[in-house]
Amino acid sequence: MTDTVTEFVAADDQADPSPEAATVEQKLIDQLVGQARSKGLQLTGEGGLLQQLTKAVLESALEGEITDHLGYDKHDPAGKDGGNSRNGTRSKTVLTDIGPVEIDVPRDREGSFEPAIVKKRQRRLTGVDEMVLSLSAKGLTHGEISAHLAEVYGANVSKTTISTITDKVMDGMAEWQNRPLDRVYPVVFIDAINVKIRDGQVANRPIYVALAVTAEGHRDILGLWAGDGGEGAKHWLRVLSELKNRGVEDVLMLVCDGLKGLPDAVGEVWPRTVVQTCVVHLLRASFRYAARQDWDKIAKALKPVYTAPSEDAATTRFLEFAETWGKKYPAIVRLWESSWPEFTPFLQFDAEIRRIVCTTNSIESVNARIRKAVRSRGHFPTEQAALKCVYMAVMSLDPTGAGRKRWTTRWKGAMNVFDLAFDGRLTAGQL
C-alpha cells in the first residue's frame, strides 16, 4: 500500500493539466481507495490512507527541496565527490489536521539544508495553531483543548505546547494595542471585567475595556488595560493620553461606571467631552442595596428620574423617590446623589442620544464573550495571562461580519443627531 501511495505522489508531481492526465489521476485515486478497502485499511485515523498519503506528499516535497538545495537528484552520479551531499534522514513526527504523521526528513553533510514545507523544530503544520487559538478564544481551557484534539484528531498535544501556541498572540496584541485610531469618536464606553489573578494569593483584578462607536456606526475596541482596583486620575490620565497619542483628538461622550478619577482625567485630555455615568450600571448598583422582592418597585420608581424631560424634572422625581424609599434604603439615595453630576448630562440631549448612552447593550455583548472565556479559566497565574485570554476573546468577536451590519444599521440614524447636538464636531473630525 505504501508503495502505491508513493507511486501516486510521483505521478502527481509530473502531472499535466490535460483531460487524459486527469483521467489517469482519477484512476490512481480509485486504485488507492480500492486497495485500502480490500485490505481493511481505514481512510482516516492512525495508519489510514490519508495519513499515509500525507506522509508521502511531505516526504516527496522534502526530497524535492533537498534536490534543489544540492543541485542533483538522489542517486545521481553528478553528486559523487561534488562537495555537499545527502546524509540520510532523520525521523520526525508532525501534527497535522488529520493527526500526527511520522516523516523522514532528508539531511545533508554540511547541515545547511533548511526545509521550507516542514521547517527545523517545527512540529505542527498550518491549521493546528489556528485551531488551538480558536478553541482558546471560545473559552476552552488548555486541558480541554488537549482532550479535544486527542479525541477528535488523535493528536497528543500537551498543555505546555498549547500555552506556547497561544503565547504567540502577544506580539499581535502589542501591535493591535498601538495601532492608529480615528480622529474623533461619537461615543466611547469604558467598562471593567473582573478576573482572578494569583499574585501570592488569588484576588479579583479589573481589566478595562474601551469600546468606541465610530462615525460610520461600527464597533471598535480601542484597547485593554489591567488595573489593581485602586486606579485614580493619574492612571486614567495615562490611559487617555495613550489614546490621544494614537490619534484620538476628540470624543463627544464618554460613558463609564463611576470609575474614580476618570472624569478629571477626561477633562485634562479632552476638555469638551461629556462624561456620562451608565444608567444601567447605576440601576444595578442600586439593586445591590435592596431586597430582591423590592427590585421591581425600585426600578419602577427610578424610571421617571432617568426618563425625565429635563434636569429640573429629574431632580423633582428623585426627591419623590428619596421621600418614599430613603428611610428603608438610604444607601441607594446616597449612591444617586454622589453620581448625580455624571448622571444628568445626557438629559439635555435628544431622545435618540439618550437611547444610546442610557444602555450598555453596546458593550454588554462584548463583556459576555469575555466573561465566558474568563470564567472557564478559573484564575490566571499572571496579569499577562489574563490579558492574553481577554485579547483572544475580543479577536474572536463577530467572525462572519454579520454583527457589523446590525451595528451600522442601529447607529447610522443617531450619527446625524450627534453631529447636530455637538455643533458639527463629528463631521469636522472626519475631514
TrEMBL record:
- Residue segments, region Disordered: 1-20, 69-92
Fetch the PROSITE patterns from UniProt: TRANSPOSASE_MUTATOR (PS01007)
Record Pfam families: Transposase_mut
Keyword hit for DNA-binding: yes
Q: One MF term from GO for this chain?
A: transposase activity
**Where does this protein have compositionally biased stretches of type Basic and acidic residues?**
69-79
One of the protein's GO biological processes: DNA transposition
Mind listing the UniProt keywords for this protein, alphabetically?
Answer: DNA recombination, DNA-binding, Transposable element, Transposition
Q: Provide the family line.
A: Belongs to the transposase mutator family.
The entry's function note states: Required for the transposition of the insertion element.
Q: What is this protein called?
A: Mutator family transposase
Q: Which organism is it from?
A: Streptomyces phaeolivaceus
